[in-house]
């Protein structure tokens, strides 16, 4: 199967100054722009966590954004990715902010 057809799922957690800086809103916008689905939410320990699913190359673009870009006033210290795997179908129909 070509990379364009292959669907990928990955969990992420972003560390740094990522709460109170519109990080979730920008993440949702970026995910919709790129064309991936999943979710994002704040954690009680000051990080942002979530899951991204979609075509492999689009998920890779989103992973790069979550590692290097973020919202304009955020400061990303590091982003941990886990449970990276190929999936046969998407678990979500869109990208949403969870509370």
Automatic annotation (TrEMBL):
InterPro entries: Acylphosphatase (IPR020456), Acylphosphatase-like_dom (IPR001792), Acylphosphatase-like_dom_sf (IPR036046), Acylphosphatase_CS (IPR017968). It is an enzyme of class 3 (hydrolase). Its EC number is 3.6.1.7. Keywords: Hydrolase. Residues 9-99 form the Acylphosphatase-like domain. The active site is at 24, 42. It catalyses: an acyl phosphate + H2O = a carboxylate + phosphate + H(+). One of its GO terms (molecular function) is acylphosphatase activity. Belongs to the acylphosphatase family. This is Acylphosphatase. The lineage of its organism: Eukaryota, Metazoa, Chordata, Craniata, Vertebrata.
